[in-house]
Every structure is written in C-alpha cells, then in structure tokens.
Design a protein that fits this description.
This protein is mostly beta strands. The chain contains no helices and 11 strands.
C-alpha cells in the first residue's frame, strides 16, 4: 500500500502561482500514470493533468498553457506548477497514481487551493 501526501495548497490572488507537490511513501517508478485531479464544491472530480511513465503529459483544456505537471522517479514525487491562477481554479486538488503491477489506484487526502478575485 502506497501513501500519497500532497502539500503546497493555499490562498492566492488571481494571477498568482502555486506549486503542489505529492510525495509517495514508496517507489513510483513502476506507476503507469500519476495525475492531479480537482473537485470544486458541488462539482464532480475532474482530471486536471496526467503524466505517464513515458513522460507523456495530458492537460484539461482549461489549464493548458498555465499548469505544468512533472514527476521525479528518483524522489518519488509528482508536482503541479500552477501559474496565472483564476478563481475558477479554486478546488480541492488530489494526487492520484495507478500501479499496473498490482492493478491499484492510490489517492492522496487532498489539498485546498483557493484563488481570490
């Protein structure tokens, strides 16, 4: 069982930046994908960004050009650099990992990001 722990959330003004980090309790080198999801009040959880083991990335249209995801297999971390933040980015952000070796999904506990206008 791998634990994921997020950090870096907080309150920021519109146009500002935040960097979220997710630390895994074990090796992530075999994880097929690591990702960041978010869930705003009253809305469904949505995929924000994903990075595959190959390094291929995916971003939801609303964050393209503003967010950047990266993974560091040596440090067992995945990060999300968020720039030009907008009030609509306000949500709880969750770290996610998929380990195909054991066919397991892992979730972090979430970190709050609040963007004020």
């Amino acid at each position: 069982q791998v634990q994921l722990v997020e950090s870096g959330g907080g309150l920021v003004q519109a146009g500002g930046s935040l960097r979220l980090s997710c630390a895994a309790s074990g090796s992530i080198s075999s994880f097929a994908a690591m990702a960041w999801y978010r869930q705003a009040p009253g809305k469904q959880r949505e995929l924000v960004a994903r990075v595959q083991r190959s390094g291929t990335t995916y971003y939801v249209d609303s964050v393209k050009g503003r967010f950047a995801i990266s993974r560091d297999n040596a440090k067992n971390t995945v990060s999300l650099q968020m720039n030009s933040l907008k009030p609509e980015d306000t949500a709880v952000y969750y770290c996610f990992a998929f380990d195909p070796v054991v066919a397991a999904n892992y979730w972090g506990q979430g970190t709050q990001v609040t963007v004020s206008s």
